[in-house]
Predict the structure of Catalase.
Amino acid sequence: MKNDQNKPQGSTLPTIQEAIQQPTQRLTDNLGHAISDDQNSLRAGVRGPSLLEDFLLREKISHFDHERIPERVVHARGAGAHGIFQVYDDSLSEFTAAKVLTDASRVTPVFVRFSTVAGSRGSADTARDVRGFAVKFYTEEGNWDLVGNNIPPFFIQDAIKFPDLIHSVKPEPHREIPQAASAHDTFYDFISLTPETMHTLMWVMSDRSIPRSLANMEGFGVHTFRFISAQGQSSFVKFHWKPLSGVHSLVWDEAQELAGRDADFHRRSLWDDIEAGNFPEWELGLQIFTEDQAAAFDFDVLDATKLVPEDLVPVKRVGKMTLNRNPDNYFAETEQVAFMPTNLVPGIDFSNDPLLQGRLFSYLDTQISRLGTPNWVELPINRPLAPVSNHQRDGQMRRTINPGRVSYEPNSLGGGQPAEVPAEKGGFVSYPEPMTGVKVRQRAESFSDHYGQAQLFWNSMSPVEKMHIVRAQQFELGKVEVRDIRLKMIEHLRRINAVLGDQVAAALGELETAEPMPSDAELMKLLEKAVSDTTASG
Ligand code: HEM
């Protein structure tokens, strides 16, 4: 579809496209009229009332009045950067037809937005929270969005629970006080009644949820996806981002102090690093495995509360992403960027993970609400670099100027112009996975273990990391006012590890003991000694 208008013959004016980019030395209103006085509104006499006639005052104030758009319903606070991605070699062509992952000569532009999940747009960067790690690849086959997090599992197994999870963690509806003792009540109320959250809760109580910088975070696609080769062969794949500057975290006291001293701590260091030429880099890592391998695991790869342990399937590093340019404008880019897990390119496909399946609906729906129109795809940060050609038309804020009388297909009136008669070819084809089954609202038995990987995570921690988890859980549950919720949580933690549960119980005054509370050093010794005693009780 044509965006440019041809210059009328004999006109000295620029085309619309040229005019948009044309710098001007004079101050104008929004419609290009020069402004003679931007300091004073129009009055009836120097001490008289302002006049309704003052179109300059009205335009300026009215535009200001409409500056805000709704913040994201989750992941509201974010920081973004432009960069590039390049795959190391063509070895993945055995598994995927995606050119972005197989053509080593391609340098694909990317835009990345990091975020916290729960806080509002103005919340502090260093809050204990999952971080979003969303990457938009502007590939020659269209945009690919890898909309991930910095923690590999997720809290819940089924998308139908997502609004409940988020309502429990957001400020309470009646008084909108975040971070209050009672906000902890609602979150832990939900968590304590939803044991599938235990694995992710352990990650969130660990140092992973207070990263030192955004450049020190890993990223994960979380769900199992499919790779499809050019020959139509399918394998499963998990996506990882491995930071080349290593994984580093804050300690809790630092995180709290920074939240007060510099709420923009992460946003600022990302910006400063890029300005200084210290470009943050990540390698893209992949775990590729077959359906037969997946069937032999003792967990279900369609269950997003589980990860695939790296000793079962090692992570292969296949390419590098470098963030090398700060946005020119926060609102136009970082705020208006819109990610969708449905943005895929041929060679990558979804799995039947019921959390992912729900996300496939949610993002387009929420973008229309947040950005106000389905034409958000035409915003500069969202539009693909690949050409767009279809029969969609109209809608609020439509920018594309579609020529001709035809906006349907098949048609015989388009005159054969490719722009007017787009042909269906070379597109995404869903993997023809054989399907049988009865229509049910029920989870598979293979989704029923909620403690195994929580224990695996705990056991993989060093004593100091375990000590941090104990302290985090003591702190957080100390903010829960309802005793019954605290008791339920202690029982969940005991099922993960007895020392963890007992130490939290002791701190909450729920353990009959004459022993004084251990210092950090004593607690670490206790945890070191307990390593060999750990018994898994799934
Ligand atoms: C943002 C829904 C699970 C990663 C969002 C947004 C919604 C949403 C409505 C706001 C989008 C916007 O306004 O731009 C859901 C639902 C989920 C789910 C319904 C489960 C059923 C997940 C999971 C991940 C994730 C499992 C990680 C794999 C993100 C990220 C963003 C986001 C990174 C922020 C994107 C940005 O920076 O603009 N999600 N989400 N979400 N979600 Fe999810």
Remarks:
- Strands lie at 77-87, 108-116, 131-139, 142-149, 219-220, 225-228, 234-243, 281-289, 316-325, 348-349.
- Residues 110 and 137 are 5 Å apart (CA to CA).
- The first helix runs from residue 16 to 21.
